[in-house]
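Section: Multi-chain targets

For targets with more than one molecule, the full set of components is provided together so that the structure can be written out for the assembly as a whole rather than chain by chain. Components appear in the order listed by the source. The example entry contains four components.
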Amino acid sequence: MADVARLAGVSTATVSRALRGLPNVSAQTRDRVLAAVAELDYVPSPSAASLASGRTRTVGVLTPWVSRWYFGQVIEGIERTLHAAHLDALLYQLDSERSAEPLRFDPAALHRRVDGLIVVGLPLEPLELDALEDLGYPIVGIGAAAPRHAHVRLDDVTTARRAVAHLADLGHRTIGLLTGSRDDDIAWSPGFQRRVGWRAELDSRALESGVGLEADGGFSLLGGRHAGHVLLGRRPDVTGVFAASDEMAMGLLLAARDLGLRVPEDLSVIGVDGHEMDEVTGLTTMAQNAQEQGEAAARLLLDLLAGRPSEATRVYPTTLVVRTSTAAPTVKAVPRTP
Amino acid sequence: MADVARLAGVSTATVSRALRGLPNVSAQTRDRVLAAVAELDYVPSPSAASLASGRTRTVGVLTPWVSRWYFGQVIEGIERTLHAAHLDALLYQLDSERSAEPLRFDPAALHRRVDGLIVVGLPLEPLELDALEDLGYPIVGIGAAAPRHAHVRLDDVTTARRAVAHLADLGHRTIGLLTGSRDDDIAWSPGFQRRVGWRAELDSRALESGVGLEADGGFSLLGGRHAGHVLLGRRPDVTGVFAASDEMAMGLLLAARDLGLRVPEDLSVIGVDGHEMDEVTGLTTMAQNAQEQGEAAARLLLDLLAGRPSEATRVYPTTLVVRTSTAAPTVKAVPRTP
DNA sequence: CTGTTAGCGCCTTCAT
DNA sequence: ATGAAGGCGCTAACAG
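Its structure, encoded as tokens over all components, is:
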């Protein structure tokens, strides 16, 4: 930088200002600086800038997974938006499972490394949220609501209600639920909210709702398959199932096949997401645009970092996409021997 | 840090050494330092450390996508391995398409920001490779070979040959190919290599191989569907297709459905990857373990960063997994009216 | 609009 | 095994 200043015949402070586009630099000075920069192939040192300014131009992206559909989409949207604003995305994968540790991440690892945080699809425990807040960065949540913080999410309750309504309208009377975990008692998690919606819609129609109709699918394909076996084994009278994610719904499709059940003749299945593979498997779903939500979350954080006023919460809609996995229940039930 | 030094009754240099586990620090001194650190909740500043040492403890992960199966798996493996070694992963999404720009990324953005680079699944152009090398970091490639650099990959030629052999052994005589792009002339790209394997196997069996049997699927679901229409429209006599990725193969399944073709009766399809959804859709594939390859790539880079001796290249195997998308061609061809 | 001057917080010789 | 001191490269007041 000193070389650039010398070549341009100015001070390093002016070089700094010119390069950062600050006001109070004459156009000709700026041009001379830029010429010198080009001449010398000068590239500023990010660590020196961080040390001096306290800003890192980096955002931490906390996520339990990157290879699942929703997460991949969201992260892609976040990264593109951040990149366009010349910020870097630091990827932090958290333990997706609760262990003996009270926190699923190490707050110290984030210390002074980022300017802000985006928490993807992770319903943080109150303790974890506290630890994150102690870091002092702006925080934006996506997927799960983040109490006290800006976040981007679906209207999970309505989404679930509409999915269940679709099944009920087709004539289904015994409608099961595949959730993340039935122990999920974090009120702001999608699993919790979608269960609330499932139950609310059933109750409003005076249909059975209860623990006996629920099964844990952990939001994964294999989890959904397992949950399908559990649920259909316990309640062979179920004719329709609302799965809180498409991946679990796909697992349920596998379980149905394992059990010799035809979809949709013997079992109707509806998921949530709008997974790329839905069209191939014919899955009916409540589709969302996850990539766009990722972009929105990143923009929310950019606003916060810039001190710009911004919305606190952004709720995205879902669209019912009917395919071949849902239909009216057949009148005469096919005998089922598990 | 000065506070810690004072509290521990040592100099800042000793604190630095103790914290980094350097030799030449007595056990008791170290303990006193650690006690002071705990007492004061001291966390070192990464930017100060980077500025002083020149090392960032950060690795750049260059990738065109994060939401596609292979990439998500690989990135997950990389991040976990890096994290375990206390390194951070900076995610850089490159333009996946070639544009007017000679480079699909900005080398300056990487300047002094990372200690090393992992290039995921991106067959870099020679110019791009040069630009990356000029940065002066160790580079590890994964997915595509990286000339002059360590890399992790599949034996693409053998994989393709075995896939085609599977079809040929079933009795197929006219076997199409869905590649990334037929213009792909980068010899170290998976698309190129898999095409070489497809052709080699066909030639060895004196079966037809040629441009007329190829179509561009861009390694995506929709691209595969489009390519399927193009290929099957041009060559209705094709009874088997090797798709260079499962996502394209899934797209081909859609195209077949569009055209009223039954799989596998009218058309056999085999892909490459071992995508999670293969079991749901019944896709026969050459399966690989992408997450493990991601871990291996990260370990390779860790070795390079530590100056440890390490292998230059690691080739992973694929396994033929036969499902319901491949079968012997039916003797009497069903009439096809597109 | 531009220059001067202190740091930012740590690492790294070089001594001891 | 430990301490002293310089410097990594930039930003941020404060002058002018």
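The longest strand of chain A covers residues 58-63.
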